DNA sequence: CCGGATGATCGAAAGATTCGATGACGCCCC
DNA sequence: GGGGCGTCATCGAATCTTTCGATCATCCGG
């Protein structure tokens, strides 16, 4: 049985596929050109296939099968590096750079406490935070540009592993002088005739608000000319205070003091399932998946007091 | 930078994880016990983690992280072998064992011609055929026990790559003396009041028949005591001939002569989308994916004459 | 307390990898 | 058209790694 291609050979092939030049690829691999050339030749001999088209001048031209092998080689090398990464992560858990993504309707209310808590608990961790819409942070997650995403479920998180953290109720925010403000709790049917202020497209909270409203048959999306769409929860609250409409806010935002001293009141919504689930998502093959599970208990809404240490 | 673990080391680790015995693992790897022992030690030293618990007697006990690393090692070794397999497949396309799965409502009508055609076209291919329900063949496909599946879409084929081959119309088969037999084509609304004979649960054709019938509002699934459910298309045709009900048959089956000389007539269905798409499915990472695409043109219904060779 | 089984360790031989130097080949410009 | 240049292949020597067989250390059951 011929030996499997070595990690070194795969590195050579991938560098050559990227740079299309033996000398520069060798430089990138920190070896001499002769070594890289011999490595590619050895790979061709071992696999018994032609990876490069050598007749066309002296330019580096991959054969179709060469491209295919290079693509598989990338995957194999990645898998090998993951073995190493798993070992590294276990030897030094909760260290190194953690690139965390978060959506705008969670970030401002969770991150401040989270960052300081993580720094206190895990001094060797370095945090990089990226706030963006659900779709964007999830894209970056699967592309490997983020390690961990804090988001609101339900959401389309194919190809990721998720862990629910806590339930975050939606609460109705309305102008203080609004007739409904007299009620202690407001049933979803009463919202049917009201104008709702929405976040702009792409915010999952927008879709979740619409989903809650659509549980009431009488409700329909406002015409585009009548629509009130804003880009941040802060603006949204301001507009409610101005009497321009009602809005659903996550309890998380309310309890973080987003209402300030504006002339608005906040009421629970009854008669429907009005909440989102805050959760974590990561790549299932992430070497640090075990770390992320350990990290989860430290991600909390600011209002929840820490459980006593044991 | 410490070197990545070698394929050999991963093999040693996996053999040890499987056999839990240095001597036998070494035998399985065709090396001496000392070599395997040294290999494991070297891996532990390179990764700088403890893979085995050595204090407990002399039994081979993996640490939790050892198990984790072994699992990743399996994946990495698999990826390396795939590089090799891609090369092998390209060097000798259309050779070796091809394990093909097929569903019962396609197999009898396509396989006979397909097998002889493939043997003629690719003499070095060895075929292994497995006929089973859609769910079962797809399970075997993703588990790697099949290479290629011939099935009817739409279907839930997550985690697989699919290639549509041709559209297969559904045709209504009814007793020769049935009043509707007088019509040249039968609109789906006329089926609303008829009793349909169905395949048993698990056949995708059953679900597709129900889907067609449900396009007609008046239609509802028969009560279980009134249901006529059979296990094969041949029985189904027999029951139609006996006047027990109507059935939808794929054109593929009709043109393969399943109606024999029974007192039934077959009519096109109008007024709805009544067809299935015959297609191929395989694992996206299959080393022979390129082969499968080349193979597709040779999979045809028996009625279609071969295009002239060019 | 001893013999068998199991895994770790050691030195030597075989094999693989790498380097620097050099060869072969096409291309460009004078 | 020929020399210079850029590019990839080849070669021998030095170095590093892997493997083997032998041996040692330890544990377990009688």
UniProtKB/TrEMBL annotation, chains A, B:
| Entry keyword Transcription | yes
InterPro entries in alphabetical order:
LysR_HTH_N, LysR_subst-bd, WH-like_DNA-bd_sf, WH_DNA-bd_sf
What's any one GO cellular component for it?
Answer: protein-DNA complex
A Pfam family cross-referenced in the UniProt record is HTH_1
Protein keywords: Activator, DNA-binding, Transcription, Transcription regulation
Keyword Ribosomal protein appears in the UniProt entry: no
Domain HTH lysR-type: residue ranges: 5-63
UniProt lists the family membership as follows: Belongs to the LysR transcriptional regulatory family.
> In its UniProt entry, what is this protein called?
Hydrogen peroxide-inducible genes activator
- The protein's organism comes out as Gluconacetobacter tumulisoli
